[in-house]
Write a structure and sequence with these properties.
Elements lengths: L1 H17 L4 E5 L2 E3 L5 E5 L6 E9 L5 E9 L6 E2 L17 H4 L2 E2 L18 E9 L13 E8 L6 E7 L2 E7 L6 E7 L9 H8 L3 E6 L13 H12 L4 E11 L1 H12 L7 E5 L11 H9 L6 E3 L2 E3 L24 E6 L7 H15 L5 E6 L16 E6 L2 E6 L4 H25 L7
Parallel strand pairs: 2-9, 12-13, 12-14, 14-15, 15-18, 18-19
Antiparallel strand pairs: 1-3, 3-6, 4-5, 4-8, 5-7, 8-9, 10-11, 11-13, 16-17, 20-21
Length: 441
């Protein structure tokens, strides 16, 4: 601490004697969460050691931080997109390391996961420069310079509309402009509650997005949710005045992917132009009710492993069944499907499922519709880019609160999120904006 205070004192003395203060540029200061930042520090001494630190307080009042250790060049400048971090929560040349490597500060509650609940408000991040290579105690130190930035899931002009119609519950996000736009049904996995932030971001990229609630909530009972619920939601989206009714997609993660694949294969009402399935499996068909599908999974609960008090769920669906009746007949799917999988997924056997889907679709003659992205070292929770990696986090399983192991390592997971999001948006644009209208089947 004495050495750090001495470094700070010397730096301040230099600034006062020369009249030159460090300058921190962070652009853009207000942007979507998937936009890359340009961070540059100027007016440092040549070869000066500094720490770039980013801190964020979540809506739950938990504090998250990331930091990198840098050495300025001969001109006293650091360009984060070009210069390597020598240590900290990330290393190497990482233009967005201050975002994707965020973690709870020491002493925080265990099992945290950083998720945006109120998409109508921004996430605020304080980015600061400290003299010397520091690893802790930032709140007790005085920064050389600080900038505050805003990161949004909703672009200006995006409309958020609560939806409760014909028994369907969710939130509709409508892009700015005259429309109509392509639409998509956004379905998350086994976690409870309505998750809106991905749908808000997709609307910010030009898609009317319906974030669909379909698991237990105060208004919805899982025992009443059947295939007709998703078909009704699809029809509501399809009939909306701002939606191009023949340009709809299904977008699912985890259990939401199982629903997307089931609807694409079996429904006579849901005829999507394309499907995006993240970390999912066809080995959990949803042919009648959601409850029945969940009960089938529960029959294999003895396969669940616990290591270091963390739940490993993936074995519950392994081996992938050979019996065709126990999995979605993906050979019947008639639209393009994009699978996004993590090679270290510890929650669902997404990689093994994709391999089996390739075999089934090749035999059925529709393999040309399937595109598979597999990212070694990535885990289950593949989210929009620059979202912090969570190898494990708290999860409600039935009535019990557990710690679920999702898998993945920070750097490869961050790379997977950035690469897959770019490819997902390109896939959706290709099939919803640019492709010719679907022929009637």
């Amino acid at each position: 601490m004495l050495a750090t205070n001495r470094l700070l004192r010397d730096s301040l003395h230099m600034a006062l004697s020369t009249g030159v203060w460090p300058l921190l540029s962070v652009e853009p200061t207000r942007a979507l969460v998937d936009e890359e930042l340009k961070v540059i520090v100027r007016n440092l001494s040549p070869r000066q050691e500094v720490t770039l630190h980013c801190v964020h307080q979540s809506e739950d009042k938990d504090v998250w931080e990331a930091f990198g250790h840098y050495i300025s060049d001969e001109h006293g400048t650091i360009t984060v997109a070009k210069n390597a971090s020598m240590g900290g929560t990330y290393k190497g040349v990482e233009s967005m390391g201050l975002m994707w490597s965020m973690r709870p500060v020491p002493g925080s509650r265990p099992g945290l996961r950083l998720r945006k609940k109120d998409v109508l408000s921004p996430m605020f991040f304080h980015i600061s420069v400290y003299d010397g290579h520091i690893t802790q105690g930032f709140s007790q130190l005085t920064a050389l310079v600080t900038r505050v930035i805003e990161r949004w899931y909703m672009a200006p002009g995006v409309q958020r509309v609560s939806l409760q119609e014909k028994g369907v519950q969710g939130t509709l996000f409508i892009p700015p402009g005259p429309g109509p736009f392509p639409g998509l049904l956004d379905m998350w996995g086994g976690g409870r509650g309505l998750v809106e932030y991905r749908a808000a971001l997709l609307a910010s990229h030009g898609f009317v997005s319906l974030a669909l609630e379909y698991l237990s909530s105060d208004e919805l009972n899982i025992s009443t949710i059947d295939v007709s619920y998703f078909e009704t939601a699809y029809q509501i989206l399809q009939s909306h005045a701002m939606v191009q009714r023949d340009r709809l997609a299904l977008f699912g993660l985890s259990f939401g992917s199982a629903i997307a694949l089931s609807m694409a294969a079996y429904s006579k009402i849901i005829k999507p132009r394309c499907c995006v399935c993240i970390s999912g499996s066809h080995a959990t068909p949803v042919q009648t009710t959601v409850l029945e599908a969940v009960q089938e999974i529960s029959k294999k609960i003895d396969k669940v492993r616990i290591e270091d008090n963390q739940i490993i769920w993936r074995d519950i669906m392994l081996p992938i069944p050979a019996d065709p009746s126990m999995k979605v007949h993906v050979g019947q799917i008639k639209c393009p499907v994009l699978l996004v999988n993590g090679g270290d997924d510890q929650n669902w056997p997404a990689v093994e499922s994709a391999e089996d889907m390739v075999r089934i679709m090749e035999k059925a003659g529709n393999l040309h519709l399937l595109q598979v992205l597999t990212y070694p070292g990535a885990g289950h929770l593949i989210e929009p880019p620059y979202t912090p990696h969570h190898r494990a986090s708290n999860f409600v399983l039935g009535k019990d609160k557990v710690v679920m192991l999702w898998g993945g390592q920070p750097k490869p997971h961050a790379d997977a999120q950035e690469d897959s999001w770019e490819k997902i948006l390109a896939f959706l644009r290709q099939h919803l904006y640019f492709a010719a209208p679907q022929a009637k089947l």
